[in-house]
Amino acid sequence: MAQLPPGIYLITSFTRDQWYRAFIFVLTFMLYVSFHLSRKPISIVKGELHKHCAIPQDTELINYKKYANRQPMEEPCNKSSSGWEPFDKSNYKELLGALDYSFLCAYAVGMYLSGIIGERLPIRYYLTGGMFASGLFTAMFGLGYFYNIHNLWFYIAAQIANGLVQTTGWPSVVTCIGNWFGKGRRGLIMGLWNSHTSVGNILGSLIAGYWVSTCWGLSFVVPGIVISIMGIVCYLFLIEHPKDINCASTSTNNSKSYMNGSNRFKIQKPKLSTKETSKSQDPEMQYLLSDNENCVMPLNYNNGFCEGYENGHSAISFIGALRIPGVVEFSLCLLFAKLVSYTFLFWLPLYITNVDNLNAKEAGDLSTLFDVGGIFGGILAGIISDRLKKRALTCGIMLLIAAPMLYVFYAVSKIGLKATVGKLSIFCQFDTFSFHL
Fold it and tell me: Looking at per-residue confidence, does 180 or 73 come out higher?
């Protein structure tokens, strides 16, 4: 018998279930990459919406004060060269900030609503609809360039709508990946998988930067088209649960499962012997299914944790979610980590433009180093948390390290471009750690 070709040997060395899990891992990864890809352009385009009016410098002069004494101060940039109305005014920081908090406030409200709505609908339909809507409203912002729209409320409305529909992504892909993967090596798996945020930011920066100086409207239209195409891919290929194609489930076998209408969120009622029931259960296992992160009920439950438990069909309630051990604590950690990461996400390119006097494209390319560091930091986070089995401790330590890094970054950014480049990648490795636990 002839020896199998290496490629065929590689294919046959993995089981059918393993191939499907690898496929879902890559597919959900790419789906959420497209979400962040469409979220990033606003930070790149800010440098074009309001151009930094730098005073020309003689390359032979090192000291600006000497130059100022020799040459009369030039007039400020005129209205036409200072950006896109209404962001060309002196209050441009407030106006650009209004775009950010419009998106983020809508995103915060929408995330709460999305969790309630999404768990009652099939993932594939819900995620596909959200991706099409995200593509529409992302492109809508860019259409302001082509139709010469200078009304601030048009751009704010586009940001609010986009913030709402963008919330369909995270709950859906997390639920899907939770259905397919258990908690074994959870840190490493989530570290690898959750690098989609950094990859999406990098691609979004590069795509938006390509057109930002020539036709910034395309910096939004193209990412809008990309996420819409990925919505089609989602509709055609996303498999919500292993049981849908008769794959082996990661669920515990000795339990009775009660499904809701979308067959995704389960309430498990373990079969325990009298001897076993006398032993206290692991706090994490009392409420959270160890394999697919579903709602697990303690046996002595009476009321309030999940709605309609007695009927066997339920989605977890808001109060019930808060009662899951660790939810409040890790939510607060993520709150402050996101405070920093979204500041960098939306403002880093403009900050680099003002500090180093780079154009919008160059600043956008340089800002990707923050996300490059995030990729390595997330993987390192997963490995450390798996090895130590102390997720809360490692999260706390890394966040404490990240705090002074902000001040160090501020200091070194004043030194010059090379120092800024190095510090960007180092800082993000610590800041992104808590995302992956």
Answer: 180
Q: How far apart are CA 37 and CA 264, in angstroms?
A: 28
**CA trace torsion 416, 420, 422, 423 (10° rounding):** 130
Calpha distance 126→110 (Å, rounded): 14
Residue with tokens 């990661």: 250
* Calpha distance 25→17 (Å, rounded): 12
Cα(431)–Cα(85) distance, rounded to whole angstroms?
Answer: 35
CB neighbours (10 Å) of residue 340?
Answer: 18
pLDDT in tens, 91-132: 999 999 999 999 999 999 998 888 788 778 899 999 999 999
297 versus 178: the higher-pLDDT residue is: 178
CA 213, CA 187: separation in Å to the nearest integer?
40
336 Cβ contact partners less than 8 Å away, ≥ 6 residues apart? 399
pLDDT tens readout for residues 305-325: 444 333 444 567 778 878 888
CA–CA distance, 146 with 193 (Å, rounded to integer): 37
